Amino acid sequence: MPDPKTKKPSRIQMRNRRLILDAALVVFSRDGYGGATLDAIAAGAGLSKPNVLYYFEGKTEIYVTLLSQLVETWLDPLIELDPEGDPVEELLDYVRRKLDMSSDMPAESKLFAGEILQGAPQIRQHLANDLKPLFEEKCAAIQAWIDQGRLAPVDPAHLIFSIWATTQHYADFDTQISVLLDREDPFDRARAHLEQMYRKLLTP
């Protein structure tokens, strides 16, 4: 049987890989890495277990592939924080984009949170090599805005942590929020609340 990784994949191969990754996202975000099984992933993808193993060597390769794609997506809003823009509006746009990701990508957020809670065994290098330099660059940009009097004095690192906490919470704790708000969609109110809170915090 030819190795699908050694030549350009066909449309069917690309479709099947996407089916596997989509099913795996559901299984890993629901059951965690330890609880996930290839049988569950195969069932979710509508494929046989041997068919899944044709495309991926095993559960770990599927998991690492998902996380690698997710890290790139997760970094995009922070990458686009523009040091030349209006400080308050740039940061509010970052808050909005992170909240939109919680609304649109709850399974991805839970997958990422689960990996971090386990000590980031699969993405520690990504955190060190990709996130840390970007984080330090954006902290420096925020501090420059503060030094210029264009932003209220805040701790740049903990501002970013707070944005992560207040936006990703809506994905990672959606079950609790659903119970407390009687299944009301929280995102419209969350957007208004977070914008008001961060605008007051950040406006010099």
Number of DSSP helical runs: 10
Overall, the morphology is globular
Q: Helical content, roughly?
A: over 70%
Domains (count) = 2
In round numbers, the mean pLDDT is 92
First-last Cα distance: 65 Å
Named at the architecture level, the CATH assignment of the largest domain is: Orthogonal Bundle
Entry keywords:
204 residues; mainly alpha; Arc Repressor Mutant, subunit A; Tetracycline Repressor, domain 2; 2 domains
Describe the model.
Helix content is 76%, strand content 0%. It is mainly alpha-helical and 204 residues long. The protein folds into 2 domains: 47 residues, Orthogonal Bundle (Arc Repressor Mutant, subunit A), CATH 1.10.10; 137 residues, Orthogonal Bundle (Tetracycline Repressor, domain 2). The longest helix has 25 residues. The radius of gyration is 20 Å and the shape is globular.
